[in-house]
Design brief:
about 500 residues; alpha/beta; Rossmann fold; UDP-N-acetylmuramoyl-L-alanine:D-glutamate ligase; 18 helices; NADP; metal-binding; metal ion binding; NAD
Length: about 500
């Protein structure tokens, strides 16, 4: 699914109006009806509704919602906020329609002092500002937003299109913005919805279809996308009937140190459960028995060091020839000892195929930044936010961090996967994908190690790096969603994600 800018969304509306054809009033009716149907499904008619309507088209949506609620017997009041002396034509038309049918339902607010007293348990609908907002809300309207936020503890707040005060395409981190429990948006995601800084503003997001013209949606290019099941089914490669283990590649996993062999085990198990043909694990001596017992399907080679790895390169007689591996994953539980850092440098010089780099391997690179330029093009780096900051520096907000992520992916010709609620995957071609699967139960130790194993397995099977990173992130999150449904977010562990990789593949 594409993510459109505010400008593109307005263009999609205009294109639909021109080519369906449909009037702007009819399109507004369609959007408001989608919201009203959602409200009917979630709330009974015994709760009062207060719809705060601005003077633009977002307010027009609110006026139509008020009328539709009344049509169903709901008690609804349109609180029209006169922040401007001029209303949009569609707003004016819908106010007139509401006045004709339900004149008692309109309450005009000209100043903050006019703010109504709401009975307990009211449903507050925010329809003040939509995607047309381009700067911070100021003056008494900022005070009104704060007043609505004061209601959140005692009432349910629902934003229409996006929470008022929130900019669709830029940071609103220090601006007055409505904090909604739910946001009912239309047709496509906005970039603002994907940013951690807006989590408390957006609340639970619901994307409602309103029938924007499919030609515009298909033909209009965008840098930003959200992954979905349809996209993954076009990427997924089913097993072939005459395949053998060599068909699906030999992967090398370099992981583990004293006290962190569990990270290597989790990554190995995830790799084995993601379709790799053969897996060799390179671990320090202290991990040999643990790995052989925990993952018997994997071959195991040990480093001469007891507690960490320091020799994984072809110049040592006890290490395998790197050319036999179709993919290498490195980093889970690896440690950052100086000999390990030197060995990583040698590995990057000798292995020139795309690899998966995670965890302590990223921390080593952050400590020795010259290694960034030695990473093979097409490799996948999987930092969490702190690791990303160590690698590339801090930014003032999430939008700036996203741009930095994309810039670095282009400059270094790498795939950068920034972990989070909507994991962001920046590609060397400038495109950015947000992963749609996953849940807070995956915020548990070892979850990232599992992801490394999945990605390494997909690369080894011959998936192109872009396909591997998109599919791997989606499967990782989907397995986490299945695990959460089976045992709760609180009870699930990284091993639960591995256990649910099979059902995740079956969904594809």
């Amino acid at each position: 699914m594409k993510i459109f800018t505010a400008t593109q969304i307005r263009e999609a509306d205009a294109y639909t109006i021109q080519h369906e054809p449909v009037s702007s009033l009819q399109l507004m009716e369609r959007a408001a009806n989608a919201c009203a149907q959602w409200l009917f499904r979630h709330f009974e008619a015994d709760r009062p509704f207060y719809i705060f309507c601005g003077m633009g088209n977002n307010g027009g949506d609110g006026l139509v919602i008020t009328r539709l609620l009344h049509d169903k017997g709901y008690n609804a009041t349109a609180c029209i906020i006169h922040h401007s002396t001029k209303a949009s034509p569609d707003h004016t038309a819908n106010r007139e329609a509401l006045e004709q049918q339900y004149p008692q339902s309109i309450y005009d607010i000209h100043a903050l002092a006019d703010f109504p007293t709401l009975p307990a348990g009211s449903i507050v609908i925010d329809a003040l500002f939509g995607t047309g907002l381009r700067s911070a809300v100021e003056g008494w309207m900022a005070g009104l937003i704060h007043r609505i936020n004061d209601l959140q503890a005692r009432h349910t707040v629902i934003a229409i299109d996006l929470p008022s005060g929130l900019l669709a395409d830029a940071s609103s981190a220090r601006m007055p913005v409505v904090n909604a429990h739910h946001t009912l948006s239309f047709e496509v995601y906005k970039l603002a919805f994907m940013m951690p800084e807006n989590a408390a503003r957006v609340g639970q997001l619901h994307i409602l279809p309103i029938g924007l013209h499919p030609d515009y949606m298909a033909r209009t290019p965008t840098r930003f996308h959200v992954t979905d099941a349809h996209m993954m089914r076009t990427i997924y490669q089913p097993r072939q009937p005459f395949a053998h283990k060599g068909t699906y590649g030999h992967a090398l996993l370099i992981a583990g140190s004293y006290g962190k062999i569990g990270a290597a085990v989790l990554s190995a198990k995830a790799c084995l459960h993601s379709g790799v043909g053969l897996l060799t694990c390179y671990v320090p001596q202290c991990g040999y028995q643990i790995m052989q017992i925990s993952a018997p399907a994997a071959m195991c080679i040990t480093d001469p060091q007891e507690t960490h790895s320091s020799h994984f390169h072809e110049t040592q007689p006890h290490t395998p020839a790197l050319h036999q591996f179709r993919a290498i994953g490195i980093g889970p539980g690896l440690g950052t000892a100086t000999p390990t850092a030197k060995a990583l440098e040698l590995l990057l010089d000798q292995y020139r195929q795309p690899m998966v780099i995670d965890a302590d391997a990223l921390n080593i690179i952050a400590a020795y930044p010259f290694l960034l330029s030695r990473i093979p093009h097409g490799s996948v780096l999987t930092p969490h936010p702190k690791e990303f900051e160590r690698l590339f520096g801090s930014t003032e907000n999430d939008f700036a961090r996203l741009e930095l992520l994309s810039e670095q992916a282009i400059n270094l010709q790498l795939y950068l996967l920034l972990k989070g609620r909507f994991t962001a995957i920046a590609c060397p071609d400038g495109s950015v994908y947000f992963n749609s699967t996953g849940n807070p139960g995956m915020a548990t130790g070892g979850s990232g190690d599992v992801l490394t194993g999945i990605l390494t397995a997909l690369l080894a099977q011959g998936y192109a790096p872009k396909a591997a990173v998109l599919l791997g992130a989606y499967l990782h999150g989907l397995a986490g969603d299945i695990a959460a449904a089976r045992m709760s977010q609180e009870a699930m562990t990284a091993e639960s994600i591995i256990d649910c990789l099979g059902p995740a593949f079956l969904q594809l």
